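Instructor's aside before we start: the two examples that follow are unrelated to each other. I chose them only because their records fit on one page, so don't look for a connection. First example below.
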Amino acid sequence: MPSQHRTIYASTEDGGIQLAAGSDRWHLHDDYVHLAPHHPQGRLVRFEAELKPFVDSLDRGALVVIDMQNDFCAPGGWTERSGLDYRRCRAAIPGVKRAIEAARRHGMWVVWVYWHNRPDLRNLGAPTLYSFKHAPDQAGIGENLEHGPVLTQGSWGGAIVDELKPLIDEDDVHIEKVRMSGFYGTHLDQVLRTQGINTLYLAGVNIDQCVTTTMEDAYFRDYNAVLLTDACATSSPDFCQQAVEFNAKNCWGFATTTEHFASPRPHGAQAGG
């Protein structure tokens, strides 16, 4: 007889409906979603989130911090020199700090994802170069500003902002990327899968570009994706962030805050019933 765990939309013993099959299944309930019903012995907790709270094991999660670099978040970087407001990107820094501190308490991996392009730019095609250079006199990737070349490996602009450097741990994972998505052309997927990571908590800038493409790619690969809304920012208009937050909770996974990320509640037997 086939296992009930292979039957999508089957009724579950805990009163839910099964989504997917095998070890990747979820249990959907009226008031929450269980992302790890096959991990009864794990450190199961319940996070408040939208559209619904979710239950997961802390052992399966990682915090992914995206593009918190000088060129986006510091004065004199590419964002400011391109006529955009870098201070809007800096608004993510306090939330990223809270998220990192919470991830450390949870015992989660912290994964730093950032642009580190080759100095000769051989890794970039014209569409990507154009997205950073819309006019002949605008400095693009690899071109020099006051502090050095834009978003280039080893440059000031490609470095993590000073406020976050003290929070980097020697065991953290570093992923150098050459496109907006942290998955494209990198070993992020291999690192996550070899470490048994299924759930990604995403933070950083720009929420409507590199954060959202990484979240979408995570969703396409069947990772559980959670957007930490107050640990993200963008130099784009407000409606761009609003659109990402809407789709994060309605399409790609869940949306929550760093406050909720820092203070989940024990679930099930661990909570006394």
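Example two begins here.
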Amino acid sequence: MRASGRLVARASGRLRRVAGQAVSASVATTDPATRPLPSKRTAGAPLTRRRFGTGPGLPVLAVAALMVLIVAMLGVEQVTGVSILPDRLSAGLRPPPKKFPVLPASHPTSLAIEKIDLRAPVHDVGIAADGTIAVPDAARAQEAGWYDQGPTPGQYGPAVIVGHVDTTSGPAVFHQLRELRSGDRIEVTRTDRSVAVFEVDSVERFDKGRLPVDEVYGDFSRPSLRLITCGGRWVGGETGYSDNVVVFASLVKARPD
């Protein structure tokens, strides 16, 4: 299984850069002990009385009424399950689909997917001589390889695990990966004796020359997992199969081993 060398090299750099930014980034917060700054007004400009007394103006009342309407419509959505509000209007108002934990760094040791009866050891892989993500040797085709330049499973960002689809002697570790569907569970056991449980979001197939780097490697919004193998038609030579099969999954919980 080979991805495009140039694309993976760019992805590797992005993983390192974004991981560094995630560590050094900070969020500005308000100090509750600090008094608010006085409002600014143009020097010499007199303060004018509101036309409608001291109550809120019409624009404020209109905004308040709109917010009450939105909250009411969100309540209807919650009860009926029917989406009423436009996505742009309700962006940031609906809760995220699922909460998730964030785990400390810990290398993966094994992988289990009940749906396809898969249980396999996981070992570290790096970058191959041609700049692509290395894959397990043919002699270890029943094992998966975790890309050790990226996050470990459960940290923020996409942990990448690769494996062969087959060998000259028969099916390999990820032979049935394409059979996974949204909602299927993937369990990754780690060296700290915790199990990171992921849920499949989607299974995609991409031409190896057009792998969408940002989509596969660039999402650091939550802990996620990418399982990658070969797919499509056999073209032979250095390419092997024409496509990459990529499983996109998100961390939903963690438990002790």
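The domain at 5-15+101-256 is CATH 2.40.260.10 (Sortase; Chain: A;).
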